[in-house]
């Protein structure tokens, strides 16, 4: 099997997918971030393409940066200054060539993630 990476974002405060949220993918090598791709979630809270497709997949350490602050502002969530959650980085390892799914459950004052399927 060839590996690939997907994600989706759910707005748990509003009870809906987080549409229009920007996500940036980085590969981490020797502590340095290398920008690979930036995508935006669709109406289903998913990206229209795999974050890291099989042809670009390699094992290693990666980081997804979820631009939650801009999404929360655009969705009408009242902003405090500074906003409690702005950019949410999730650093994780992919050790085998398989499907990795890293979702984000988001609210203005908290989030969670897990290795999905």
Q: Would you write up a description of this structure?
A:
The chain has one helix spanning 68-74; strands at residues 4-6, 9-11, 16-17, 22-29, 32-40, 60-67, 87-94, 99-101, 104-107, 110-113. The two termini are 15 Å apart. The protein has one helix and ten strands; from the N terminus they run E-E-E-E-E-E-H-E-E-E-E. By secondary structure, the chain is mainly beta.
Which short descriptors sum up this protein?
mainly beta, 1 helix, four-stranded antiparallel sheet, 117 residues
Task: Set out the fold topology.
Blueprint: E1 4-6, E2 9-11, E3 16-17, E4 22-29, E5 32-40, E6 60-67, H1 68-74, E7 87-94, E8 99-101, E9 104-107, E10 110-113
Parallel strand pairs: 1-8, 2-9
Antiparallel strand pairs: 2-3, 4-5, 4-6, 6-7, 9-10
């Amino acid at each position: 099997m060839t590996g690939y990476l997907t994600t989706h974002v759910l707005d748990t405060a509003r009870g809906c997918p987080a549409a229009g949220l920007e996500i940036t993918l980085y590969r981490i090598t020797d502590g340095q971030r290398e920008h690979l791709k930036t995508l935006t979630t669709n109406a289903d809270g998913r990206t229209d393409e795999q974050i890291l497709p099989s042809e670009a997949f390699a094992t290693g350490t990666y980081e997804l940066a979820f631009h939650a602050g801009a999404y929360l502002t655009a969705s009408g969530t009242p902003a405090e200054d500074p906003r409690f959650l702005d950019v949410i980085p999730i650093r994780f390892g992919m050790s085998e060539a398989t499907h990795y799914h890293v979702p984000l459950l988001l609210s203005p004052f908290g989030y969670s993630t897990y290795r999905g399927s």
